[in-house]
Amino acid sequence: MLERHDGDVVGVEVKASATPDTGDFTGLRYLRDKLGNRFKSGVVLHTGADTLPFGDRMAAVPVAGLWT
Question: How far is residue 45's CA from residue 29's CA, in Å, rounded to a whole number?
Fold first, then answer.
């Protein structure tokens, strides 16, 4: 979890899987639902190649994308 000085929050999970699925977002969805508008986005970093949307303010992003 990353929190800005103004209270905005981004949640990050890291998975060893190349094929993220909806279950990987359980904790991030809980955080989103608890924080409401303070929650800006949830990201699951994975070992696959594609960025994939997973619903409201959620995405799976390849870990390799951090360096490109």
Answer: 15
Locate the domains of the chain by residue range.
2-67
**C-beta neighbour count of 15 within 10 angstroms:** 16
Is residue 37 within 8 Å of residue 57, measured between CB atoms? no
pLDDT at 43 over 90: yes
What would the 3-class secondary structure string for the chain be? CEECCCCCEEEEEECCCCCCCHHHHHHHHHHHHHHHHHEEEEEEEECCCCCEECCCCEEEEEHHHHHC
Q: In this model, does residue 68 exceed pLDDT 80?
A: no
Tokens at 57, concatenated: 């303010």
